[in-house]
């Protein structure tokens, strides 16, 4: 077992950091150039910069195209070739020793929320670029080609659905449907692609060896647990329900309490029960009532007709189904006990998306070998990787975002975390793509 | 003690019904002509009749003026004289033996909700007319003059505030402010009065001996208790509060339950607590949360900022104050326990309005002597009588409305209840106004 440090050997700080034992193999752990990656992130944030330190690059806007242009320029400087598909997904390619092999892909997105942050999406794209730059620095060739994807319209802030580009790439959505989606001003994706020069010719979807996406967590778990690396094991299952509660609207001043059928009092008891339900499914079960509306509400009228939404999540489809059954039963029981009518309608069901065991293991092994604090975590938010996972072996690397804050101009991440996440991406990708020089 | 039935002695069914002992006095109990009153109610309902059996006579509309015209014609036929004040309140007067005495007034309103019923307000006006018609039938003169008031814009459906005419009459609102109130189309009360020919010249407010208003209950209490007559002891006190609850908006998919500060879960606990608070103040204490809004709500965002209204009622000012204190304490305690910020702002406070003990006793005695089932009741809704009670000795007579339903085209009342309520009004008014023939 070799176990000694090797200082930076070439380039601008990229280094072969240490030799460590993983399983029974001896592997070289590499590190990216943290300051260079940070500088690229800050430079990209200037494209569409907002007054309060964030970025605004709505999908297929001039700003989005300018961001892609900057990225493309950096990729060409790193010796990569560029291509686009018909839905505007942008790919930068570094040839492999056997360039006929399916590529190992990294990536994420460069579009932002209207008042978005500097890291959501951008981090996964520029971490991929930094991986390539580091391999260039170190003179390392990979067996399989490497690609970096910039997926179109991930945020869903301009066109719906979110993750439109990766949906079209993986076949989750037809190309025609993707191109026909229109923004609030009636402009279609096809028109926007033409207007900003981002349309390619080849149809979306090519065989991939694997897909790795680095991303800020967009939640508080890693920070709260004091971990730098989230080894993402998959996307959780989501069940959206619509609940309508009907009682009897009546005068707040003339109706004695025992004669009331107050829909809101019933809903409050249901919501309290749903909070306790979440506790029974802790820690993985999540329960959110995000919207609640009283029909024809007035200050002095007893609510007679109201609706609320229910968002249930669990990494396990079977457990989520149990959560849904229990939620339905408790809503029915509360309604029954109060003489209310409650109707529960399914709105959307998204099954759990487990990531590929080998790819997840590669991420975990890299974090382990690099000596970075890490934990397994489930992706709570949607990501392009969720689509990719149904298409090819996929994994994600999470790093903390300060305060769990995202979709906000104040979104932030620590430079050290940014660097360590990219280190993990580098070594996991390298393990998958294979070093042409035979070094493990 | 005389205790025998006297059949109808003249007119269309009005009768001196029975002699009964009240206290130590022997009094003649009279009855109105039920079918005639019912026929008048149905005839008035045809003015602005709606497709589903209700009426639409918005204040100072053509329909409202037509209803007043019909009423005025009936009053003239009954030998009464008409006058209007500057805010359009319409008065029909039957002279007293001593016509210099302040009049005993009956009345209510003829305007309706946009899709209003046939009884709300109309009943009090036409019951007053039926009282006069019956006295005419029986040839009975009163010591004091009698008047019937038709108050302007009681409903508040066209102009705000509700009970505008009686507010101006009693000085609760200045004439100028009342005339300046504008409807949704910008038309002022002054303009509407001129347009429909309902403006009078004399300033509102003349001395009254007493005011009696018959009205449907607009709640379910009498029906639920199997009583025909509600002896209204006054109007309850009302406290309106606005509550804001602030937590932390966050992603429904990425935020573990223990790290959430969910404003809606907090509000649900508060509302459950408020429902239990009502039980502690049963049966008189009423608690209603009529409006609840989540700011920037979305199905997959944890509510971070929300508001709800609170309507607290009790017939006793001191008890209402205790309800408010306990509500504030429980809201603060729930917020504290959950790391939420809660702010409670006063919105409106209306003190209790006890009715005049003698007038209330006259109503109760009449119901008692007539042998009608009755109970004391507090007025939960607003009525012109609430303004009048601060101006002169006042009482109200409630009768049941079917299912407690009001402000609805399906509003209904039983003909027998309609007749018995007017019988009570007749005898209470007569006791107050005094029979010129000296019969008690």
From TrEMBL, chains A, B:
<dbReference type="GO" id="GO:0016813">
    <property type="term" value="F:hydrolase activity, acting on carbon-nitrogen (but not peptide) bonds, in linear amidines"/>
</dbReference>
<feature type="binding site">
    <location>
        <position position="109"/>
    </location>
    <ligand>
        <name>Zn(2+) 1</name>
    </ligand>
</feature>
<dbReference type="InterPro" id="IPR036264">
    <property type="entry name" value="Bact_exopeptidase_dim_dom"/>
</dbReference>
<keyword id="KW-0378">Hydrolase</keyword>
<feature type="binding site">
    <location>
        <position position="120"/>
    </location>
    <ligand>
        <name>Zn(2+) 1</name>
    </ligand>
</feature>
<dbReference type="InterPro" id="IPR010158">
    <property type="entry name" value="Amidase_Cbmase"/>
</dbReference>
<dbReference type="GO" id="GO:0050538">
    <property type="term" value="F:N-carbamoyl-L-amino-acid hydrolase activity"/>
</dbReference>
<feature type="binding site">
    <location>
        <position position="215"/>
    </location>
    <ligand>
        <name>Zn(2+) 1</name>
    </ligand>
</feature>
<dbReference type="Pfam" id="PF07687">
    <property type="entry name" value="M20_dimer"/>
</dbReference>
<feature type="binding site">
    <location>
        <position position="155"/>
    </location>
    <ligand>
        <name>Zn(2+) 2</name>
    </ligand>
</feature>
<keyword id="KW-0479">Metal-binding</keyword>
<feature type="domain" description="Peptidase M20 dimerisation">
    <location>
        <begin position="238"/>
        <end position="335"/>
    </location>
</feature>
<protein>
    <submittedName>
        <fullName>N-carbamoyl-L-amino acid hydrolase</fullName>
        <ecNumber>3.5.1.87</ecNumber>
    </submittedName>
</protein>
<dbReference type="GO" id="GO:0046872">
    <property type="term" value="F:metal ion binding"/>
</dbReference>
<feature type="binding site">
    <location>
        <position position="407"/>
    </location>
    <ligand>
        <name>Zn(2+) 2</name>
    </ligand>
</feature>
<dbReference type="Pfam" id="PF01546">
    <property type="entry name" value="Peptidase_M20"/>
</dbReference>
<keyword id="KW-0862">Zinc</keyword>
<comment type="similarity">
    <text>Belongs to the peptidase M20 family.</text>
</comment>
<feature type="binding site">
    <location>
        <position position="120"/>
    </location>
    <ligand>
        <name>Zn(2+) 2</name>
    </ligand>
</feature>
<dbReference type="InterPro" id="IPR011650">
    <property type="entry name" value="Peptidase_M20_dimer"/>
</dbReference>
<dbReference type="InterPro" id="IPR002933">
    <property type="entry name" value="Peptidase_M20"/>
</dbReference>
């Amino acid at each position: 077992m070799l176990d000694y440090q090797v200082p930076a050997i070439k380039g601008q700080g990229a280094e072969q950091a240490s030799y460590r034992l993983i399983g029974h193999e001896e592997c070289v752990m590499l590190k990216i150039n943290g300051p260079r990656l940070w500088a690229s992130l800050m430079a990209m944030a200037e494209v569409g910069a907002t007054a309060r330190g964030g970025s605004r690059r709505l999908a297929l806007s001039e700003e989005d195209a300018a961001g892609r242009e900057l990225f493309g320029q950096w990729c060409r400087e790193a010796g990569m070739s560029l291509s686009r598909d018909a839905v505007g997904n942008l790919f930068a390619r570094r040839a492999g020793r056997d360039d006929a092999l399916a590529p190992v892909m990294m990536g994420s997105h460069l579009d932002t929320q209207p008042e978005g942050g500097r890291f959501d999406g951008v981090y996964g794209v520029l971490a991929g670029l930094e991986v390539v730059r580091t391999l260039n620095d170190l003179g390392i060739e990979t067996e399989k080609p490497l690609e970096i994807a910039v997926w179109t319209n991930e945020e869903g802030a301009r066109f719906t659905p979110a993750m439109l580009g990766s949906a079209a790439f993986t076949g989750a959505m037809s190309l025609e449907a993707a191109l026909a989606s229109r923004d609030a001003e009636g402009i279609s994706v096809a028109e926007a692609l033409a207007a900003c020069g981002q349309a390619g010719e080849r149809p979306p979807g090519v065989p991939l060896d694997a897909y790795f996406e680095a991303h800020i967590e967009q939640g508080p778990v890693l920070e709260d647990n004091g971990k730098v690396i989230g080894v993402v094991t998959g996307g959780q299952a989501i069940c959206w329900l619509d609940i309508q509660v009907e009682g009897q609207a009546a005068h707040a001043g003339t109706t004695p309490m025992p004669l009331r059928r107050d829909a809101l009092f019933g809903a409050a008891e249901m919501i309290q029960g749903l909070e306790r339900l979440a506790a029974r499914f802790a820690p993985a079960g999540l329960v959110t009532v995000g919207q609640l509306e009283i029909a024809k509400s007035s200050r002095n009228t007893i609510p007679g007709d109201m609706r609320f939404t229910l968002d249930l999540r669990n990494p396990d489809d079977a457990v989520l189904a149990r959560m849904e059954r229990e939620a339905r039963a408790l809503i029915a029981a509360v309604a029954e006990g109060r003489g209310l009518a409650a109707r529960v309608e399914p709105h959307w069901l998204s099954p759990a998306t487990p990531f590929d065991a080998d790819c997840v293991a590669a991420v975990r092994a890299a974090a382990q070998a690099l000596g970075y604090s890490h934990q397994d975590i489930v992706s709570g938010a949607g990501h392009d990787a969720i689509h990719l996972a149904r298409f090819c072996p996929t994994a994600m690397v999470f790093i903390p975002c300060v305060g769990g804050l995202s979709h906000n101009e104040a979104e932030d991440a620590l430079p050290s975390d940014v660097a360590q996440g990219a280190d993990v991406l580098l070594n996991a990708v390298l393990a998958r793509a294979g070093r042409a020089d035979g070094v493990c």
